[in-house]
Amino acid sequence: MSQNTNNYYLPAPSLWPLIASIALFMMAGGLAMDMNDIASGNYVLIAGALVFIYLLFGWFKEVITESLSGFYNKQVDSSFRWAWAGSSSQRSCSLLVSSVRFSTSVHLH
Hints:
By secondary structure, the chain is mostly helical. The chain contains three helices and no strands.
């Protein structure tokens, strides 16, 4: 496996974000339909979930293939790790703030 050390790898444009939007829209619509007792809501929700599962397998397959093909150099690997760390810390802080707000609202009443 050869490493590309000179350039920062930018993948080609992808349809995966569009497919993600469609899947999430279908799941939200199906859930709303189901909550309003519309008969086809379950089917739309399940179809959206299946599209989302297809999305996960397809998108991860593409990223893993790019990684194993040697497209990612150390800079790309580092940026992935920093993005993951930033995203994780943001989620942790958000969860902490939500927990504190919930616990204070419960104790105040």
